[in-house]
Design brief:
The protein has 402 residues and is of the alpha/beta class. It contains eight helices and 13 strands. The protein is 20% helix and 19% strand. The strands form three sheets. The protein has a six-stranded mixed β-sheet with strand order 4-3-2-5-6-7, with helices on both faces. Strands 1-13-9-10 form a four-stranded mixed β-sheet, with no helix packed on it.
Length: 402
């Protein structure tokens, strides 16, 4: 079982007090400007480029000429013998306050036995209890707000078909409640329930997503998540196919306000990969729990949404401050996407706005005086298993039409 998190990295090109670009200590290696290096941005080039630089750095945010980092106009010269570098400030941001509606499968197969002699229902229920009582779930943000609030919905509603298929599942058994105060109430709900019935999963997921979209509209400062816990494909209420389930998750994520769908697949073996596609479509991740300590597996799976970065599901980022606290325009920033599995870094193209997104990219809410950076949907989806870096002080690339 592997849960992939991601962090938000901020690299700030810092200017020295003398007005010249100073060499700093880099958290990531930055190259010096040598002969042929790019002059600083701005109408006034701010002086001539020096020669005889020390060559290419590794991992610099922008390599021009012999590896120099292009910076905003400082009004001073770039000294001979190199001297253009950066001070990289790498900041791991805490997760956003997050609302999670757990959508719990209570169909009859949840009563099947586990390798340790218990049942999937009982061991998964134990994992849920460990989740809502965990220190991570009841921690606070830097601003002192509870980091997690949790609601609970079961499917089916156990009235039997066709009644199960008439329920819209938009009203949870327990609505979003703050932890740790609601932990006891949430776990006690299981006591009056036992596995029975089929799985109207598409209907249940659609209702859960609709509920969380309404909540996200009312609480735009909080991330919205549906966490599906199931041990099988849909078996009741047309449509029953996995393709429609994936489309339902995708619709929740692709339209504002975004709702991510995470999936915990219990005892599904290789069939869990079908649910990986559903989680991916919903901008979330899959955790498969097939054996071992099932309770711990479920607990860690339910904690997975807390690995999201401070932008939350909307993939909107606050504008970082420029050197010496100066305000920045969109033209002074680059966003770099880092693939967590390969380490490959891709500079995302800047586009004019959401309507101009055609693949990876980002845009500013106000290009002249931005307050938020927003990712296009394709890039936002990759944040479930990637990392993002904002590089301040570089001329940004603009997406060109195909």
């Amino acid at each position: 079982m592997r849960i992939t998190g991601w962090s938000f990295l901020l690299a700030v090109a810092a200017l020295g007090c003398s007005g010249k670009v100073q060499t700093g200590t880099c958290g990531e290696s930055c190259g010096d400007t040598g002969a042929g290096g790019k002059e600083p941005m701005g109408n006034d080039p701010g002086g001539a480029s020096g020669s005889g630089g020390s060559g290419n750095g590794t991992g610099g945010a922008r390599n021009d000429g012999a590896g120099g980092l292009s910076l905003p106009n400082t009004g001073g010269a770039v000294g001979a013998g190199g001297g253009v570098s950066c001070t990289a400030i790498l900041t791991d941001t805490e997760p956003p306050p997050t609302d999670v509606l757990v959508l719990w499968d209570q169909s009859s197969t949840m009563g099947d036995g586990t390798p340790d002699g218990s049942t999937w229902w009982l061991t998964a229920k134990q994992g849920f209890g460990e989740f809502v009582n965990s220190p991570q779930a009841s921690s606070l943000t830097g601003a002192g707000s509870p980091i997690l609030a949790v609601g609970l919905q079961f499917f089916p509603v156990l009235r039997g078909a066709p009644s199960d298929c008439l329920d819209d599942y938009t009203t949870p058994e327990r609505d979003i409640s703050l932890l740790p105060e609601a932990a006891t109430v949430l776990t006690s709900i299981f006591d009056a329930r036992s596995p029975s019935g089929a799985r109207p999963t598409v209907l249940a997921l659609a209702g859960a997503i609709n509920h969380m979209k309404a909540r996200a509209n009312a609480h735009p400062d909080r991330a919205a998540v549906v966490s599906l816990v199931t041990n099988g494909a849909p078996t009741e209420c047309d449509p029953e196919d996995l393709a429609t389930l994936a489309l339902t998750a995708s619709a929740g994520f692709d339209t504002e306000p975004r709702v991510r769908t995470y999936v915990t697949a219990l005892n599904l073996g290789s069939a869990a990969q079908d649910f990986a596609k559903i989680a991916s479509a919903g901008g979330g991740t899959l955790v498969a729990v097939d054996g071992g300590n099932v309770a711990i597996g479920v607990r860690e799976a339910l904690l997975a949404p807390l690995s999201m970065a401070a932008a939350g599901v909307s993939c909107a980022y606050a504008i970082p401050a420029g050197p010496q606290g100066t305000a920045l325009g969109a033209e002074q920033m680059n966003l770099e996407l880092v693939d967590s599995s390969t380490g490959k870094t891709t500079t995302l193209p800047y586009v004019d706005g959401a309507a101009s997104c055609a693949g990876d990219g980002w845009y500013a809410d106000d290009p002249a005086a931005p307050t938020k950076l927003r990712l296009c949907t394709d890039s936002c989806r990759k944040m479930a298993t990637g990392s993002l870096r904002v590089v301040v002080g570089c001329a940004l690339p603009v997406q060109t039409p195909d």
